Amino acid sequence: MTGRLFSGILLVCDIDGTLLDARNQLSLENQMAIRRFIELGGKFTVASGRTLAAMNAIRSAIPINMPVISVNGAMISRLYEKDQTAIWERRLDDRTASGLILDLAREFPSLGIEIFTDRAVYPYRINETVRWHATKEVILDDEYALEDIPRPWCKICLADDNGVLQHVNQYLLAILDDSWHLAFSEETFLDILDHKASKGEAVRVLQKMFGITRAQTAVIGDNFNDIPMFGESGFSFAVDNACDELKRLARYVVASNNENGVAEAISVLERQLVLV
């Protein structure tokens, strides 16, 4: 094969459960496949529920040549530049969000509650799920009063076992209007964001900024919060460990995150482009 086969193609990849394996490691196979994708003209980025600070911890291992989507679609930033400039963002109304947090804390006593700013995660209430989350996210150690958490806020992350979160989700659907967006980033994390903050919306913004069409866009993920970006792509991939709904919606199901699913997706994409 000659030329720059992936020229003009945007590949947007989820991080946890997709690009990284169960040990939060990037395999050599995935890394080499991404580097080859970029060398052949491709544009590669990630879309994650993580903050920029948590992305920084793995930045050196992941080849990226496009702005990144962080905080579940609330921000697009230039991770690869020194000042990591935000080029697009959707924030929460912190006064309204504060009232909602107090309400949730009263209604669900076991619920862990985290507030994401653009750089750090401030726990309002710590439980075991929040403590586990700190293994891969930059979460401060102590609980903070709402008035002590820096503004502006990007998202509220609710942390508990899935049974509790399903009840919380139904409660929120009954009381929130369409100015909010709810997304499960994992079974144990339910995110509350501005209605314009989603991975799908952020992908649309990137497409417009860089003159990329839906047909030129490929996405790969594993969970419910990846669904919005599937609708913005010509090529959609779900890793084999993905939730059933995402696998039903995907154009292709590839190997799991423990078996180099991203590398397989790039190989499938290459074969499809050769056929065009």
Can you give keywords for this protein?
alpha/beta; globular; Rossmann fold; Hypothetical Protein, Haloacid Dehalogenase-like Hydrolase, Chain: A, domain 2; five-stranded parallel sheet; 276 residues; 2 domains
Overview of the structural elements:
The protein is of the alpha/beta class and 276 residues long. The protein folds into 2 domains: 10-89 and 198-275, 3-Layer(aba) Sandwich (Rossmann fold), CATH 3.40.50; 94-194, Hypothetical Protein, Haloacid Dehalogenase-like Hydrolase, Chain: A, domain 2, CATH 3.30.1240.10. Helix content is 34%, strand content 21%. The chain has helices at residues 15-19, 28-39, 52-56, 94-107, 128-133, 162-175, 199-210, 227-230, 244-249, 261-275; strands spanning 10-13, 43-46, 68-70, 75-77, 86-89, 112-116, 121-125, 155-159, 180-186, 189-194, 217-221, 235-239, 252-254. The strands form 3 sheets. A 5-stranded parallel β-sheet has the order 2-1-11-12-13. Strands 7-6-8-10-9 form a 5-stranded antiparallel β-sheet. The protein is globular and about 60 Å long. 46% of the residues are buried.
